[in-house]
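Chapter summary example.
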Amino acid sequence: MNQFPNQPGNFGQNYYKPVQGSIPANSEATNFQQNNSRENKSECELRQNSIAASMSAYPNGMYAGAENHNVENHENYTMVGHDHMEEVYGDDLVNEPRIAYSSDIVATFDGKDFGSNLHVDDTLDQQWAHFAGKQQHPLEPREIPFPVTDPLNSKIEMKQFTNIAAVLRYRGVHSAKKTAFIILDNKGKEFTSITWEKLASRAEKVAQVIRDKSGLFRSDRVVLMYRDCEAIDFVVSLFGCFIAGVVAVPINRFDDYNELSSILTTTSARLALTTDANLKAFQRDLNAKKLHWPKNVEWWKTNEFGGFHLKKKAEMPPLQVPDLAYIEFSRSPIGELHGVVISHRTILHQMNCLAAIHATAPAYESDKLDYLSIDREYTEGLSKSGLFLTYLDLRQAIGLILGVLHTVFSGYTTVWCPQNAVFVPGLWANLATRYRASFMLTDYAGLKTIAYNYQNDPKATLGFSKKHSVDLSSLRMCMVDCLNVDCEFQEIVSDRWLKPLGNQNPRATFVPLLCLPEHGGMVISMKDWIGGEEFMSPKGFKSPRTPENEISEVLLEKEALKLNEVVVLAEDDKARRQSKHPNTIRVGAFWYPFVDATLAIVDPETQVLCLPNIVGEIWVDSPSLSGGFFALPKQTEAIFHARTSFISSDTFQPIPSNQEFLRTGLLGFIRKGKVYVLGLYEDRLQQKVEWVDNGKQDTIFFHHYTSHLVNTIMRKVSKVFDCSAFDIFVNSEHLPVVLLESPAANIPTEANGNQVVINYGLLDLITTECVECLLEDHQVRVYCVLICAPFTLPRVTKNGRQEIGNMMCRRAFEHGTLPFLYVKFAVERAVLNLPVGEDAIDGIWSSYASGIRQNLLSDQELQYSGFIDRSLRYDAKTSVDISSCHTMLQLLQLRVAKNAEDIAYITIDGRGREGKNITWRKFDQRVATIIRYLQKKKYIKPGRVVVLMYTHSEDFVYALYACFYLGLIPIPVPPLDHMRLSEDVPAFLFLIKHYYVSAVLVNSEADTALRAKTTSQHLKQSAMAAKVVLPSFIVTSKISKQTKSIKELNVKLDPICLDPAFPALVWAFWSPDHRLTLTAYNHQTLLSICQIHKETCQMTHKRPLLGHVRSMSGIGFFHTCLMGVFLGTTTYLLSPVDFANNPLLLFQIISKYKIKDTYATFQTLNYIQNQQPTKWPNLSCLENLMIPHDGRISAFYIASLQKYFVKHGLSPYAFSTVYSNCLNPFISTRSYMGAIPTPQLLDLRALRHGLIQPCESADKPYALPLLDSGMVPVSTQLAIVNPDTRELCRVGEYGEIWMRSSANAISFFQSTDPVDMMRFNATNSDGFLGNGYVRTGDLGFLQITSHSMGPNAPVVDMQLLYVLGPIGETFEVNGLSHFPSDIEDTIERSHPRIARGGTAVFQSAGRVVVVIEALGQDFLAAIVPVVINSILDEHQIIADVVAFTSRGNFPRSRLREKQRGKILASWVTGRLRTTQVFYIRGSGEGEFQSSYVPDYNPSLRSTPSVSSRSTLPQRVF
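The structure predicted for these 1517 residues follows.
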């Protein structure tokens, strides 16, 4: 019979020979698919239906394997608790399934067209054609050729029992006095034991109490909380739940309260069974941790229940067990908690298979010794069916299956000892001899300790007991629970431990177990003697079984394995002899698949059956497997109901199977029917390898397995306690990472307990050895290595033992939460795909790179705006022609002449009350008073420089206009801040000395501040040290008032003051670094600023103005001092001090006086937001809230501000950002645009090339949200120009923003710097723009977008300006340009321990340096990879140095702005106060990472909360 009609020849017939006793495919196949239940069917009938189904499960005759266990089990556990189906299938704990993602579609950045293109693999059909007819088909399930009987009574067939609880009742009657369980202490002495009769009696009692007193229904969940030494109480409660018809939920971790609460919540358990001692200990733990008892849970102490006593003539209660038996909770490789449901039928299926395997295990003559010749102290009462010895946890996984369930099923006696007992040399072998152990369950960790102790000191084992010598001849199976077979060690155990201690066939005795601890601990492969090997091997070949081939292994070519190909160089004995050859890997086999299992090797990415000799994921289907996860339907569907595909030879298309499999997550292959496992899918590393062959670049991926890398590290790197290896996906590349635990990372302490400096030289040596050995042995180019102290990496519990969890390590590494002390990078070898610009030397502004962009965008328009001239015309208030006015003084005289009694200024106090009204007449008189006083001073003449140091008051305005009249050059500056005298005083003295200040005009408040003891002494001492002669300080508010007006004083403006080159006003701008910039404005410019502002913002004299903060320059200055005079309206003044005390006062004034247009800084709005005021006024009158900025706008910050203020009544259309700088306070604005700002997504990859390209999604790591700065106002023209070639940029690229406006400053005050002079009167290379342009020094672009002009308004095209940032802050790496703000934003988002606004990125001596203000100074090495990865992933560059400063040492200005210049200067001079410095590439002058002693806390596993990132209160005035 050919089962594969589409395959050539008789491949299927030869490869898969039908099992004897199977039935034709056409007789029962259809019936099987209609009736999936195994109820009321014999094992033979089930087997026949399974074979019949296997021949029809796949389309086109493809083999499908055993009966669909998932169909049955899915039915089983979905029926659990018919009243609780919704609860079982709840979505509340659905996690992401473990699914690998295919890389058929890859998004790449094309350097030619600078675009993001999707390249689709069009060769997929050819790949399928390569698979067709060549795939490796699943291995058939084998049949048990004999009935499984009771080992104690061969007449009793075990198939008559319908559940495991019935078997216990049977044992309690027919093996009543035999010992069931024996518990030993750490020294091997019997601690407690129980017979089958007592075990059954106590279990019946627990079941009776649950039925009578708990109020639970069938299938309700009951939690079991017992410690490992309380195994007997655990078994009693477990079977008590089985008998009572409830579902048991074992919980093994009491120290994790969150896990306990999660399990109780998920399972809705209302009853918990435990012991009295355990309950008291749990109570103490809760009290110590200040936790509350879980709610709605009743706690019972089962050790007080006693036994069950049946009344006379009464019958045992009938067993009415539900489908589910128990739910075992475990953690996935990535640490996710989930419960696996186990049904009673699943238990019986597996027990039958295990019993058959154990029954066929070879027994030897010495195993049939007369028990009278053995010490009766230990052997009396033991079961004659066999003795089971283990130290694994009996409450979970394989320990529960073999040590408890199979013990009951087969009637064994189980002897359990704690894991610590294996560390006592000779004790384990003595226990096996003492109890004549037939079966032994261990793991590698314990067995290695036992075997190596014997190798080091054989006498300790041989002479352990004087009563009898060690003899393991009775041992039939030494089962080892493991993930990989350690070939070298199994030789040691077989030949150097079992054989010397009397075992006659040690290689047959050693049995590796391949279990699924994540899926209930089920066995999927182990050594057996059932037969059926001829159906597993190719062409039905069956090799004779000898002691030599009881251990199967192969020697593989290492290079081929990197490509997922299996190339066998030698097998078995030859493999052992040739294992020392280089470039080979020795891999051991478990055995054939489990008896009733269908096993397939599947490509984890495509889910298609693999070709022969190809590594793939092991998928298995068996009635002995669990049905799925509890309350996780999505994950259950993905993991337990996976369907593989077969490639049709006719259509070359994948055809899904009808059979469902369990995805084990194990990677391996099949050879001659035997299963070889290389590791978990999550533990496989891959790395890209590139080379050039004949001018063509080729790329492949090499795969490496964590177990192989770990073994190499442990063998070759000194001082390594344990380690973990994994890869991370950064910048579209897989980068290997190694985490080491080393005693060298223990923080040393002196005798007095003080911590001493860590030996970083030794740590560097260890990491270097690790990098080099992996490169030499495996060609793995390690990305980074980190070191921490032993027992600090995340661990998972397996068989009661803690093992490093690679995926948990990876997650903690990516979050930067592990306590690492040292990190070493090897990026030069590992990172391959760093982008390079068109001109790697001269950068994006070179002629070559610019020419490429120009050619690419040759069909696009040039970037420049239109120009609309709006000169002075008529004054709206007086209807007077003011086109002939040249100064603000003429408009002031117009107000005095026409509206003398109108109110000019009103001061508002801290309570919102109005001060004295200042009419235009009084305003004129106050100005005249100061003029008259200053005229008497001989040293004050036209053209002299004076400093106006005033608080926010009308006195400042009076002094300003007095200077205008006298032809003085005023420089307004704020008063000295007594908290920052070290910055303010030097800047003030610099101003006096270099600009020859003749006088300093102050008011009373400023004078009081200057006369303060601290300030005056600091000022005088600094002046003496700097050899600066302080000018006169004139308190203008104390001048005697007079009633004469300016006109009566006959004050006339000096004609020289009307010269366009004469600076009527000088604005002082301090950068965050407190570097001073002075820009000069003439009288005509001041008028133009007011005119542009009036026209753009539609301002009239009918609405008042408000001046509050930042009144010394910019928008705040002309709102406070000029616009009121220009419009002829009232100006209200609010002191910044009063605003700071009552932030809501600002909006109360706006609402009360119906102010339509005003301004506010970002610091002002942020201060209001942080204060969270209540009782907001009505803000419907405010139509234009201008927010000046001099760089790029944060889209997220604006969105948060807008959301907050809109919630309190401000119109979303009122937010108007204004782009301004020291050369023009009103370059562009969003005022009255009628459109809500919408971020535009730009592609960062294109931006580095100088191009503007939209990004398709905000989820992309290279997406940059950018807000526009509005439209160009009247009398202003902008152009985007290449800063180097001075050519106009085209649409699609960005350049420097040039501006031509009547509001431009006339010069940098008294500057002779050629660079400063070059910025004025600039012209482009071809003269197209003409003259009169000023270079802003900022990069940006113009773009036409369509917006609606308000609600229900038509859509119009607008030309908007987008500002990217200062050109002086950008730096280039590999010919690509980067904005520090983008990188800093990435860094601050990467880790919660990085302070907000606490990063600075700059380039120094060719290195990219990152300075970070960290919250807390312990284990900073864990943050470094997070920072480097985030920069590499989003910006494709590698930072060369990462330096950390402590809280408060990061230089900031008084407005909490980072001081970039000061940071750079401090770094270059070595004066930056750093805590630790990490050199990513190279080191600084041969030094290692800075010596630093952290506050060590072994329990540190988490980072500070986000709330710890709050900053100090910000000053806004």
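To summarize the output: The first strand starts at residue 105 and ends at 110.
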